[in-house]
Design goal:
Layout lengths: L2 H8 L1 H14 L1 H14 L3 H33 L3 H8 L8 H46 L11
Length: 152
């Protein structure tokens, strides 16, 4: 059984201790151990473990949300269309008047954003046209003959 296998049996603290001791005794050996840990993936697994936990929690939240929606459908019956309308603007606050106000405000803001983007597009086009017209005017003012050579 190799040294790496024995250290893997002991766990992460053994690898950390080996790295610290090797840095203290001879710093190039410490760099070698660190390079081995990174290259073999022993350092990356700690981040991957955290990423896996986040993924599991996200999956669990989606599953629970689906379960809660199914229970609400069974409980409330035919009011699904109203809930779908409110769900488009975010989670329900429990106050129907506020939810309607919020969805109307969001719709209005999206419309204003669209109009503003169209205005900016028209403004850019007008600016480009003005620059191009200025370029053409400058070109027309230039004599058609060859440009004078600098004398020096």
């Amino acid at each position: 059984m190799g040294i790496a296998a024995r250290l893997d049996e002991i766990g992460k603290p053994a690898w950390i201790a080996l790295m610290v001791v090797s840095f203290v005794l001879f710093w190039p050996a410490g760099l070698a151990v660190l390079a081995y840990l990174i290259g073999s993936g022993r350092m990356a697994c700690w981040k991957q473990e955290r990423r896996w936990r986040r993924h599991e929690m996200r999956e669990f939240r989606h599953h629970m949300r689906d379960q809660m929606r199914a229970a609400a459908d069974r409980w409330f019956g035919d009011h699904r269309a109203e809930r779908e309308e409110v769900r488009d603007s975010g989670p329900s606050s429990g106050n129907r008047a506020f939810d309607e106000y919020r969805s109307e405000t969001l719709r209005r803001l999206e419309e204003e954003e669209r109009e503003f983007r169209e205005f900016l597009d028209r403004l850019r086009i007008a600016k480009d046209k003005a620059e191009f017209d200025e370029f053409l005017a400058q070109r027309r003012r230039r004599p058609d003959g060859p440009e004078p050579q600098p004398q020096g």
